[in-house]
Amino acid sequence: VQLQASGGGLVQAGGSLRLSCAASGRTFSILNMGWFRQAPGKEREFVAVISWTGDSLVHADSVKGRFTISRDNAKNTVYLQMNSLKPEDTAVYYCAAARTYYGAAENYYNCWGQGTQVTVSS
To answer: CA quadruple 22, 116, 54, 15: dihedral positive or negative?
Structure first.
């Protein structure tokens, strides 16, 4: 499967963005999907994960209550709705797919998108 992330941009603090990750291939509907981010000078960190059925979600504590992961298997797309954005949310955001793993450890994800830049100004 190939992943294409989009939707990043420049937004003021308190604003919102919705990231999309479009997947090619027939197996998308059985893949667990995650979002990660990497800020300048920092390691990549987990943001959220959604199960292949869409009925199980986990969000990192740093984004809980502000970000929401969702998916539309008919469109082969996973989303990350980001509200109440803060300057510390500035990062490159990556989507990733895992065949069997469901969690926050990036090493277990099998496929990665190219990343989309999110910049939040104060």
So the answer is: negative
